[in-house]
C-alpha cells in the first residue's frame, strides 16, 4: 500500500472518531425514572393508644370538668360536680352522622349494663350535631343511659373534642382520668380497663 493510501486511511479514521465524539457529546443523558407517588393512607379517627396506666392526661391537667352541666333531652340538668366523691362518670360523645359512633353504641350499651351497678354513672352526649336529628334518632333508638344534647357545642369546645366518637372517664375526684378518641373493634375493652382503673382510684 502506498504512503498516500495509508495517510488517506488514517485521515478517514480520525474523522470517523471525531464525528463519533461530537455525536456522543450532544446526546441527552438518561434521566432517572420518576418515582411512583406513594398513596396516603386513608384518614382514620384518632385513637388513644393503650397505656400501662390508662390515663391520657396527667392527673390534675385538662379542663375543669366539674364546671360542666349536662342538659338532658327530657329537660333535666345534671351537674357533673354532683358526682364528686361518689361515682366515676363515663361520657360517650357522639353524633347521628358519625358511623364510628354507631358502631360503638351497642358496645357502650353493654358497658353501661356491666358497670352501672358498680359505682359508675353513664351519660350519652350528642354534640356537633343538629338537635332535631338527635331527638328523632333517640326516639327510634332506646338507650341504656340518660342522653344530653351539647347545645352550641360548648362541652365539645371545653374538652377539645373535634373528632367523634370520644369517650371520657372522670374519676371520683372530678378529674379527667381517660379520654379515648375514635373507635375500632376491641376498643371497648380499653374503656372498661380505664373504668376499672378509675374505680380503684
Protein described:
- The protein has 201 residues and is an alpha/beta fold.
- The chain has a domain at 65-200: Glutaredoxin (3-Layer(aba) Sandwich).
- Helix content is 35%, strand content 17%.
- It has helices spanning 3-26, 99-115, 131-140, 154-159, 187-200; strands at 69-71, 77-79, 88-94, 120-126, 147-149, 166-170, 176-181.
- The strands form 2 sheets. The protein has a 5-stranded mixed β-sheet. It has a two-stranded antiparallel sheet with strand order 1-2.
- A hairpin with a 5-residue loop joins β1 (69-71) and β2 (77-79).
- The radius of gyration is 34 Å and the shape is globular.
What key attributes describe this structure?
alpha/beta; 201 residues
Kindly summarize this structure in a few lines.
The protein has five helices and seven strands, in the order αβββαβαβαββα. It has 201 residues and is of the alpha/beta class.
Question: Low-confidence parts lasting 5 or more residues at pLDDT below 50?
Answer: 17-60
- Give me the count of strands: 7
* End-to-end Cα distance: 110 Å
Quick one: overall form? globular
CATH architecture heading of the domain at 65-200? 3-Layer(aba) Sandwich
CATH fold-level name of the domain at 65-200: Glutaredoxin
Sheet-strand content, in percent, reads: 15-25%
Radius of gyration: 34 Å
Q: Tell me about the largest β-sheet.
A: 5 strands, mixed
